[in-house]
Amino acid sequence: MAHAKMIDTMPPPAAATEGGRRPTDVAAAGGAPTCTEQGLPTRNGNAAPPNPEVVEKPERRRFTKAYKLDILSQVDACSGAGQIGALLRREGLYSSHLTNWRLLRSQGRLDTAATKKRTVKPSNHHAVRVTQLERENARLKARLRQAELILDIQKKASEILGIPLKALDDGGNDL
């Protein structure tokens, strides 16, 4: 009991820890703090400035069809327990790679002779032009209906007021 009271009255250590971990800039057991980069000691106890250089985003790995087929043939040749896992670790692959590659092989998309190089699909300019012309046609029909309505109103107004209108022949010329 006396031992428990003595622990409660003791001051906390200089580099107090929370949950068994200490902050990154606090030294272990009274030693000088070290720079987290390159393991060098910090100057005047201050942390080293962060590296301002932006790390380039890693490029995604791409596997050729020949490589995929080679790996699948090696996997098919594995017979013992743990051989596939060892192969995957050696090549730095995941089991999901095998799953996807097996699916591609069953669909026939890994056959090097049967497939051609991927190209951009040619855009269908005719379909785009047809939709533009259909929109323009609808717009012009609406304007024609409006113009015919205005002409009908003008004819009725001229009849009411007794103003004679010039008659047009079939070509649109005055008689």
Overview of this protein structure:
The protein is mainly α. It has a domain at 65-107. The chain is built from 5 helices and no strands. The protein has helices at 2-9, 65-77, 83-91, 95-107, 125-161. Helix 2 crosses helix 4. The chain is elongated, with a radius of gyration of 42 Å. The model is unreliable at 32-39 (pLDDT under 50).
Name its key features:
175 residues; elongated; mainly alpha; single chain; 5 helices
The largest β sheet comes out as: none
Global outline: elongated
Distance between the termini: 127 Å
Question: How helical, in percent, are the residues?
Answer: 40-55%
* Average predicted local confidence, pLDDT: 77
Poorly predicted sequence stretches spanning 5 or more consecutive residues: 32-39
Percent strand = under 5%
Rg calc: 42 Å
How many beta-strand segments? 0
Which structural class best describes the helix and strand composition? mainly alpha
Task: Compute the number of helices.
Answer: 5
**What's the order of the H and E elements?**
HHHHH
